[in-house]
Amino acid sequence: MSTATEKTLAASIGRAIALQRTRASLTQEHVAAKLGIGNEAVSRIERGVAMPSLQRLYDLAKLFGCEAVDLLTEGSPHVDDQVRHLRQLLEPLNVEDRDLVLRLVEQLSSRLSR
Questions:
Q1: At what angle do helices 3-23 and 54-64 cross, to 10 degrees?
Q2: In b/e form, how buried is each residue of 7-38, taking b as 16+ CB within 10 angstroms?
Protein backbone atom coordinates (compact mmCIF):
# COMPACT_ATOMS: atom_id res chain seq x y z
CA MET A 1 0.00 0.00 0.00
CA SER A 2 1.41 3.39 -0.93
CA THR A 3 2.14 6.04 1.66
CA ALA A 4 -0.53 8.31 0.16
CA THR A 5 -3.11 5.52 0.38
CA GLU A 6 -2.15 4.80 3.99
CA LYS A 7 -2.51 8.49 4.88
CA THR A 8 -5.91 8.67 3.19
CA LEU A 9 -7.06 5.54 5.02
CA ALA A 10 -5.80 6.80 8.38
CA ALA A 11 -7.56 10.14 7.83
CA SER A 12 -10.82 8.39 6.89
CA ILE A 13 -10.72 6.13 9.93
CA GLY A 14 -9.79 9.07 12.14
CA ARG A 15 -12.80 11.08 10.93
CA ALA A 16 -15.09 8.10 11.57
CA ILE A 17 -13.68 7.71 15.09
CA ALA A 18 -14.16 11.42 15.81
CA LEU A 19 -17.72 11.26 14.49
CA GLN A 20 -18.62 8.20 16.55
CA ARG A 21 -17.01 9.76 19.64
CA THR A 22 -19.12 12.88 19.15
CA ARG A 23 -22.26 10.80 18.59
CA ALA A 24 -21.51 9.02 21.88
CA SER A 25 -21.18 12.45 23.59
CA LEU A 26 -17.65 11.69 24.74
CA THR A 27 -14.64 13.97 24.92
CA GLN A 28 -11.17 12.98 23.76
CA GLU A 29 -10.12 13.13 27.40
CA HIS A 30 -12.84 10.66 28.43
CA VAL A 31 -11.87 8.27 25.63
CA ALA A 32 -8.20 8.53 26.59
CA ALA A 33 -8.98 7.80 30.25
CA LYS A 34 -11.19 4.80 29.39
CA LEU A 35 -8.54 3.33 27.09
CA GLY A 36 -5.61 4.14 29.37
CA ILE A 37 -3.83 6.28 26.78
CA GLY A 38 -2.93 9.94 26.56
CA ASN A 39 -5.18 12.68 25.18
CA GLU A 40 -2.63 13.36 22.45
CA ALA A 41 -2.87 9.73 21.29
CA VAL A 42 -6.62 10.08 20.77
CA SER A 43 -6.08 13.37 18.94
CA ARG A 44 -3.43 11.84 16.68
CA ILE A 45 -5.76 8.96 15.78
CA GLU A 46 -8.67 11.30 15.01
CA ARG A 47 -6.46 13.54 12.87
CA GLY A 48 -5.20 10.54 10.91
CA VAL A 49 -1.62 11.02 12.09
CA ALA A 50 -1.60 7.61 13.80
CA MET A 51 -3.36 4.44 12.68
CA PRO A 52 -5.07 2.55 15.52
CA SER A 53 -4.39 -1.14 15.92
CA LEU A 54 -7.15 -3.64 15.27
CA GLN A 55 -7.55 -4.22 19.01
CA ARG A 56 -7.79 -0.46 19.57
CA LEU A 57 -10.53 -0.24 16.90
CA TYR A 58 -12.53 -2.89 18.76
CA ASP A 59 -11.99 -1.07 22.05
CA LEU A 60 -13.14 2.22 20.52
CA ALA A 61 -16.20 0.61 18.94
CA LYS A 62 -17.21 -0.92 22.26
CA LEU A 63 -16.77 2.43 23.99
CA PHE A 64 -18.84 4.24 21.33
CA GLY A 65 -21.56 1.57 21.19
CA CYS A 66 -20.98 0.81 17.52
CA GLU A 67 -19.32 -1.95 15.52
CA ALA A 68 -15.65 -1.89 14.54
CA VAL A 69 -16.73 -2.12 10.91
CA ASP A 70 -18.46 1.25 11.33
CA LEU A 71 -15.09 2.81 12.10
CA LEU A 72 -13.54 1.21 9.03
CA THR A 73 -16.26 1.82 6.47
CA GLU A 74 -17.85 5.16 7.30
CA GLY A 75 -15.42 7.12 5.14
CA SER A 76 -14.71 4.37 2.64
CA PRO A 77 -14.67 5.17 -1.09
CA HIS A 78 -16.11 1.71 -1.89
CA VAL A 79 -19.74 1.65 -3.06
CA ASP A 80 -20.73 -1.30 -0.86
CA ASP A 81 -19.41 0.50 2.22
CA GLN A 82 -21.16 3.70 1.21
CA VAL A 83 -24.44 1.81 0.74
CA ARG A 84 -24.04 0.36 4.23
CA HIS A 85 -23.46 3.85 5.60
CA LEU A 86 -26.52 5.22 3.80
CA ARG A 87 -28.60 2.40 5.22
CA GLN A 88 -27.50 3.33 8.74
CA LEU A 89 -28.47 6.93 8.07
CA LEU A 90 -31.88 5.97 6.69
CA GLU A 91 -32.86 3.39 9.32
CA PRO A 92 -33.91 5.79 12.09
CA LEU A 93 -36.00 7.93 9.72
CA ASN A 94 -39.72 7.51 9.20
CA VAL A 95 -41.03 6.40 5.78
CA GLU A 96 -41.76 9.92 4.54
CA ASP A 97 -38.30 11.20 5.48
CA ARG A 98 -36.62 8.18 3.85
CA ASP A 99 -38.58 8.87 0.67
CA LEU A 100 -37.45 12.49 0.75
CA VAL A 101 -33.81 11.48 1.14
CA LEU A 102 -34.09 8.94 -1.68
CA ARG A 103 -35.64 11.52 -4.02
CA LEU A 104 -32.82 13.96 -3.22
CA VAL A 105 -30.18 11.28 -3.85
CA GLU A 106 -31.86 10.36 -7.15
CA GLN A 107 -31.91 13.99 -8.27
CA LEU A 108 -28.28 14.54 -7.31
CA SER A 109 -27.19 11.31 -8.95
CA SER A 110 -29.02 12.19 -12.15
CA ARG A 111 -27.56 15.69 -12.24
CA LEU A 112 -24.00 14.61 -11.45
CA SER A 113 -23.96 11.74 -13.95
CA ARG A 114 -24.63 14.05 -16.90
A1: 20
A2: eebbbbbbbbbbbbbeeeebebeebbeeeebe
Q: What is the pLDDT of residues 23-68, one digit of tens each?
A: 999 999 999 999 999 999 999 999 999 999 999 999 999 999 999 9
| pTM metric for this prediction | 0.74
Give the CA distances from residue 39 to residues 31, 35, 77, in Å, rounded to whole numbers and listed in that order. Answer: 8, 10, 29
Q: Transcribe 18-33 into DSSP letters.
A: HHHHHHTT--HHHHHH
Contacts of 73 (CB under 8 A, 6+ apart): 16, 81, 84, 85
Q: How many residues does the chain have?
A: 114
Q: How far is residue 74's CA from residue 49's CA, in Å, rounded to a whole number?
A: 18
What is the three-class DSSP state of 74?
Answer: coil
